[in-house]
Amino acid sequence: MRKMSDVETPYLRAEPLVFEVGDTVDVGVIITETVEKRGKLEEKERVQTFTGVVIARGGAGINESFTVRRIVAGEGVERVFPAHSPKIAAVKIKRKARVRRAKLYYLRERSGKSARLRERIVASAKKSKKR
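User: That's the sequence. What structure does it adopt?
Assistant: Structure tokens below.
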């Protein structure tokens, strides 16, 4: 068991991703494209964002992953991201939600207003003092 952790440790993300199930996040994914320029093939990298609600998080160590769901043209699209993948540039939290489940698979059967999650207001440490 110790040998496995010794092999996995260099591949773990230096700063862990801090978000919870129910949060609406922007996941920046690094996309590599092959472009022909002046007869030569070049590889270009760009960051594409995938915005959606985190409906599941699981695994541990190098096997940790999370599932993000969004609605595109009336169809639900889910994408599973490995948490320690070098292809993930950043995860930005847009909105936090109050949920009472670890997995939000019930959102798959819902659409419209019934698929909304109650927003969670987080107290900020930088609140201005009232005079």
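The domain at 2-119 is CATH 2.30.30.790 (SH3 type barrels.).
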